Amino acid sequence: MNTAAWLILLLPLFSAVLIGLGAFRSRIASAVISVGAVVGSFLLTLLVIAAGGELHPSVIWLAIEGLQIDIGLRFDTLSKLMLCVVTGVGGLIHVFSLGYMKEDRDFSRYFAFLSLFVFSMIGIVLADNFVMMFIFWELVGISSYLLIGFWFE
């Protein structure tokens, strides 16, 4: 179940990175990867909820004398509910955007930014400590800025 927990967070990030680096020149491939990543996160969320219990997977990020900062995820009742909302609504926004952005020339860039935003929101919901919450809060701000300024070059 720990693998599913990490995949919920990382699928939208992988999507944003792949599309952002231009791995998929095709508009259709970019859309399929982006929508698939967010819908995949939603389905994995349902799997984690169905499994029940709490999860707290973590890895050591920084360890110096007297200080240890972990990268950890917290799956409790509230975070599971909010994760369901974020991934569910994020998936619906992705599907809606397929039609809304179909004529835009920067279609792929938009989906890269949108996947980054969903990754950041999932990170806030699952953050296990204040350091991670701050990092994801800043990522939400950056990705919001990129989406708001999308049509301004």
TrEMBL record:
GO terms for cellular component: membrane. One of its GO terms (biological process) is ATP synthesis coupled electron transport. It is a multi-pass membrane protein. Residues 61-111 form the NADH-Ubiquinone oxidoreductase (complex I) chain 5 N-terminal domain. Its main location: membrane. One of its GO terms (molecular function) is NADH dehydrogenase (ubiquinone) activity. It is found in: Membrane. The chain crosses the membrane at residues 6-24, 31-52, 82-101, 107-127, 134-152. Keywords: Membrane, Transmembrane, Transmembrane helix. This is NADH-Ubiquinone oxidoreductase (complex I) chain 5 N-terminal domain-containing protein. It comes from marine metagenome.
